[in-house]
Write a structure and sequence with these properties.
95 residues, 2 domains, mainly alpha, 0% strand, single chain
Length: 95
């Protein structure tokens, strides 16, 4: 609930300030952001960050898979299959 209230307060503040700034200021901010996004230095930095993020995700995925039971060293990515569940009445599962 706390996060929702924080989000709503931030949204209301942004909306109010944006409405007061008007369309001209919005267009100015938009032009500035577009210019930054098309800057070769910014694009290069974004590419480097994307490569680093992909590497981190890959290593994190490998670490998680190694921690899972039956996760490491098996060819089947879906695991051994469904686990049989014992009936509620305590008798042995049927064939």
């Amino acid at each position: 609930m706390r996060y929702k209230a924080t989000f709503l307060i931030g949204f209301a503040t942004g909306y109010t300030l944006g409405a007061k700034a008007g369309r001209e200021r919005y267009e100015q901010i938009r032009r500035t952001m577009r210019g930054l996004s098309e800057n070769p230095a910014v694009q290069s930095a974004a590419g480097v960050l994307q490569a680093q993020a992909s590497s981190l995700v890959g290593s994190a995925r490998d670490k998680v898979i190694d921690k899972l039971p039956l996760g490491g060293g098996h060819d089947d990515p879906y695991g051994p299959g469904p686990v049989p569940v014992a009936p509620a009445n305590g008798s042995a599962p049927g064939p």
